[in-house]
Amino acid sequence: MTLAHWDDVAKHPQSRRGRSGTWSGLGTAAGAVGVGLNRIELAPGEVSTPAHAHLGDEEIFFVLGGSGLLWQDGATCEVRTGDAIVHRARGAAHTLRGGDGGLDVLAFGLRAAVGGAFLPRVGGYWLAAPDAWLDVNPGVNPFDREPNLDWPEPGERPRNVVNVDEVEGDFGGLWKRLAREAGATRSGLNWGHLPPHEEGAPPHCHSVEEEIYVVLAGEGTLELWGRPRPGAPFQSEPEETHPLRAGHVVSRPAGSGISACLRTGDAEMTYLAYGTRDPADACYYPRSNKVALRGLGLIARVEPLAYDDGEPG
User: Which domains does the chain have, with CATH numbers?
Assistant: First the structure.
């Protein structure tokens, strides 16, 4: 699975005391492996989750529509359409509440593995970072024990909240690095706008980094390029094309060998591009047979490995 549309993804209403709203697992539906993407739709007054902070994950939220409040370590601020919110690992505890017209957000995360060990006979879980113990009670969901939060009057917006209209961007404002502006260190969320008859990033695939694209407005085409083959000439045309429109989610897992590119025709397209930022990543460009090594800051032309991988062709 590479492509899904949020209109076709099942919605799951939440009714626990500490978790409300309607959730849609967009990343899973599109075939994401090491990253997560959920759409959270909050009615007025609904709170997304208990106030929490992750040990290993970095979370990035993007407000699709509406308005509401961000609760962060006891203070609140207003959030609105076009806001990007970054929560770094081991950062401030946080949650969201829907405003008078509701709040519609996308939540991106790394699905980082956190070390630890479950002791079934003891009834506890050891958290390796920080070094702490958690009692395990299988009969009680902790979300049901969430105390009511105090929501003070909203104050000044913290540095981890930016709006797309406030970021200058590159290429005349057509490419905006929202997450970087909001302090992200382990992942990225970029806002891109393609005028008619334009190409986004050149066709490429990653060895380690996983990407997700979300189309916000307009329409275009997803191009998929085949795996490199020993002795094959440079690829000049994609093997598959798929039409895109607002609401489409494109998953690009790492190590697939299948390159991808976004392109517009007569219409323009606006989209989000989320990705991990692993320095060990190598990025391959099939039209030129070049590989970029992120951690080394190098790019080189290469030849596909000449070995039998068990696949035809």
Answer: 3-158 (2.60.120.10), 162-301 (2.60.120.10)
Q: DSSP class of residue 219?
A: E
Residue 89 CA neighbour count, 13 Å, CB half: 15
pLDDT in tens, 105-149: 999 998 776 667 777 767 777 776 556 777 776 667 777 777 788
| Residue 114 one-letter amino acid | V
Write the CB contacts of 128 (distance below 8 Å, at least 6 apart in sequence): 114, 115, 116, 117
List CB contacts of 241: < 8 A, sequence separation 6 or more: 221, 222, 223, 224
Tokens of 105: 């957000």
Q: Read off the tokens for 166.
A: 């406030």
Round the average pLDDT of the chain to a whole number and report it: 89
Percent of the chain at pLDDT exceeding 90: 68
